[in-house]
Amino acid sequence: MARIEFKAFEAVIFDLDGTLVDSMGMWKNVDRDYLSRFDIPCPADLQRELEGLSLHETALYFIRRFDLKDSPEVIKADWRQMVLEQYCYGVAMKSGAPELLHFLKKMGLRLAIASSNDAVLIRDFLKARELEDVFDVLVTCDDVKANKPDPAVYLTAAQLLKTPPEKCLVFEDVVRGIEAGKRAGMTVYAVADDWSAAQESKKRALADGWVDDFHELLPDELTT
After folding, report:
1. What value does the mean pLDDT take over residues 98-114?
2. 172 partner at 20 to 30 Å CA-CA among 9, 18, 108, 188?
């Protein structure tokens, strides 16, 4: 069972998709359904190729690979429309995630999201889940113009949190995200996720710890 001494840290930074939310399958379906509009089959390697890319970079990738004529802005707007209701109200949060967030906030730790996802969607998601007041900072890869495993998104989050990197704890679900947190000089815990199950051995090797369920990290009195 994972146990973390949270008092050793001043801030906790979370990735979102696959870390706090079981949404990776949703994004795979969006890619498939979007490409079907153009009678393009979804390639088997697509999810691997998109790992760590921001929404804007993903749109650019689609334009290049599939010879699409729409602008990145139009493509992103289409994706937002496709996922908004399901993302905000349909996909499930990881087991124990809401409880952990509120526990950390009550402890006085500063909290941030550092994600490759779209800021508009993230804010809508947080509002729908009544979590908008939990996080002090939201940073996306689009904000820093660099994709994971570049550490920029984590370093920027730490800067905005006014916290040195070595006092930041990160939770991530994929290898590139774990690498980004480690390159930022932070403690990184890997989170189990079905969509990155093939990466488990590498995730465990790179990370400082492993989490199967966020309930593991809560005091016993909060899990009974």
Report:
1. 97
2. 108
